[in-house]
Amino acid sequence: MAHYSGPAHLVRSVSPKWLALSLLSLALIEPATALAADDYLHAIEVEANKVGTEPEVATGSPTTPGPGGAETPSTPMQAFEKQLEDRFAGTYLFYKRLPPGAREEIYRQYEGGASIEDVRRTIMSRFLHTR
Amino acid sequence: MLMNEMLEGVLQPRRCFTAIRRAGAGLVLAAAAVATTAWAQDADSIAIQLVEGKPFIHVLADGESVKIQRIQDPNYELTGYFARTGRKCPPFCIHPMHVAPGVETIGEVEMFEFMEGPMRDGDGLLIDARTPQWYEKGTIPGARNVPFTIFPDNPKDRAWNRILSDFGAKPRGDVGQVERTLEEWGLMDAGFKTEDWDFSEAKELVLFCNGPACDQSPRAIKALLGIGYPAEKLKYYRGGMQIWDLWGLTTYIPKKQ
Which residues in chain A are contacts of B149 at CB distance < 8 A? Predict the structure, then answer.
């Protein structure tokens, strides 16, 4: 009996479940990388909003910082809310409808290292359960 | 006496010109003496120098001369964003000293030498690799903003053409197979050449970002290495804005474009 071998045979011999898992893994690699890059960009944006400016220094001027450099005009939580408003306007609308305690809880979740996706899920969950 | 000579020189031009030359030389010497004295007095007032014998340097930023020196108040303590000791890691983790093989990590003294050497001569560029949002809040004088985000992932992306041309690299165009083979065999000097780019006259780049916990300039450096930019022509100022600020060095807020 001839033993057939070739690509068709290999495909038939691979379990559909493993084939599906492999294809799913390949499909997720690139989006995961893009998401990681996006997360980093978001992180540095949030940090940039924490940087104070020297209001008394004109632009186009060198600065030699004096004592007591200017603090950032916004708190970290305000910076987080601004980011949310700029990047996820829809989610931000739901966020603003939450009571102050819930908003504080969500900000603490974010500050504790949760991803923006987890935070958005929490916002929607809180909003639906407070209606 | 000089005036007499000049009056006589009306009828005797040669004596007139000699008198004028003497007067001119005297004026030049006097001006040089005044300038040297002013510099010396300025330098004398600089107790905290950049390095011994170098109280300050000047660089061009937005077309104007900017003096880089250190804060002279010995009691000054750093405040603000760069005074913080830690941020979340990841993503803001401490980076190793060496960003990539062959890329030299430099400090402030090397920065001053670079600013007074290759940068001033046009053979080098100081690159602030942070996003514009960071750059606009203050940078190192003389730095050009080339955010790490502009480097394409695809080496064939045409955006590389403008970026690398700005850095002095030249596209190779069609290179014959014979020449390519000779280069591969080492029979023809490939120098700083890749398949698509000739980096022989590319500028030396010093890249920096926020400091030892910032990944923006390392990402930029790796992107440039990936396209073939010679490692010997890339330098990593690891200290970045944080250490630059820590030393009380002059920062510059760029003019809005």
Answer: 41
- Most confident residue range from A66-75, B80-89, B108-117: B108-117
Q: Which of A19-28, B90-99, B104-113 has the weakest average pLDDT?
A: A19-28
- Structural domain boundaries, residue B91: 47-168+203-246
Distance CA A95, CA B240 (A): 37
Which tokens sit at A110? 């974010």
Closest CA to A115 of A38, A29, A25, A28: A38
Q: In this predicted complex, what is the ipTM?
A: 0.74
Taking the CA atoms of residue B56, residue B59, residue B64 and residue B67 in that order, the dihedral angle to the nearest 10 degrees is -10
Average per-residue pLDDT for chain A: 69
DSSP state of B115: H
Q: Are B203 and B167 in contact (CB under 8 A)?
A: yes
Q: Is residue B226 located within the same domain as residue B242?
A: yes
Helices A76-87 and A100-111 cross at an angle (nearest 10°) of: 90
Q: Is B62 on the interface with A (CB under 8 A)?
A: yes
The alpha-carbon gap from A74 to the nearest alpha carbon of chain B, in Å, equals: 13
Q: Which domain holds residue A18?
A: 9-48
Q: Are residues B106 and B226 in the same domain?
A: yes
Per-residue pLDDT of B211-231, as tens digits, reads 999 999 999 999 999 999 999
Interface contact B80-A45, CB threshold 8 A: no
Q: Flag whether A58 is in a domain.
A: no
**Residues pairing with B124 in the sheet:** B204
Asked if A72's CB is within 8 angstroms of B131's CB, the reply is no
Extended strands (E) in chain A: 61-63
Residues B56 and B150 in one domain: yes
